[in-house]
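Hi R.,

Here's the input for the glycine complex you asked about:
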Amino acid sequence: MERNESMNLAWADQALEMSLSKIEKNIDRIGEHFPHVAYDGVYNDQGPAFWVSGFWPGLLWLYYEETKDERALDLARALEKRMDEVLDGFVTLHHDVGFMWLPSAVIDYKLTGNETSKVRGLKAASHLAGRFNLAGRFIRAWTDEVDPNSKGWAIIDCMMNIPLLFWASRETKDPRFYHIAEAHADTVLKHFVRSDNTTAHIVSFDPYTGEKIENLGGQGKDADSAWARGQAWLIYGMTLAYRETGKKDYCTAAKNTANYFLAHLPEDQVPYWDFRTDQKDQFVLDSSAAACTASGLLELSSIMEDGPEKIFYYEKALQILKGLYEHHYDLSENSQAMILHGTVNYAKKKHVNVPIIYGDYFFTEALIKLKHETNIF
Ligand code: GLY
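And here is the predicted structure with glycine in place:
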């Protein structure tokens, strides 16, 4: 969709300006650390090995693209280098290498042509491809350190990691990576997406035969739940799989699961942590699911043919972003954080209704998409 005067996007310009200003201040305030969640406006440091380590570099690259401020480039590169110990450490590395190296090394390579970054991206992609279980046609999520029983577990979040494989395939002109990404996405369609257009978080397969065993609750309420962020990963991830393959089934799944998400949003546009939450837990929100979905819907709209659906998803994305800015944005200049009320893991009561770095990342990414095309994933 082309942005035009009649859309009245002054709020979006203001939100982007404020977010860029926070990133600029955070160059000194956060510096060479790996933020995850913020308390009292100050981000913690979760270290380079945690799955969110790419998002602060990602924010710096978004900021660099807008401003050409070399301090952001230098810091993003320093963080990228710190992540090498994790990539080369290998043994405890999991499937979240897309979340980690797409917004850091791969974007560095795309924007600056840095060859060292390209190698990092390809190493990460090879690791992800190596996690593919041929019998079950899924990518294994975690390692034995997380759970010794997880050899047959795939999780919905991986839909946001497979874009790394599509990138690697294009980069090497070798379809192996593409085939694995496509096979995994097909498995998600078959075994994760339910007939009511919700998704399971974890699906457990027999790692030897590849037979599906059961759904597991994971970060959702239970095995039959509709965890809001899982739904967001599915919407954005299926959209990206459609963009890369042109497969209509992926587009249909992205639209259907988005329709479920949109139909269950409260007025302020931020979902409860799980769409099937118990009433007593309805104080728990997940703004990061809203931010990720908004960015995914802008992507979906951008690759659709002209028509009412293209307009519909664009407008819904705007509505979510506006809701986030008007009701859930931390306006204090002193706060490092942007988006309030994200929830990391309510099933384990970890970090409830707090700013989360990927909420800030997807919010900023979406605002920049509104302004002009920039897509890291
Ligand atoms: N990828 C883990 C999460 O969404 O919390």
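One thing worth noting: The mean pLDDT is 96.

Cheers,
M.
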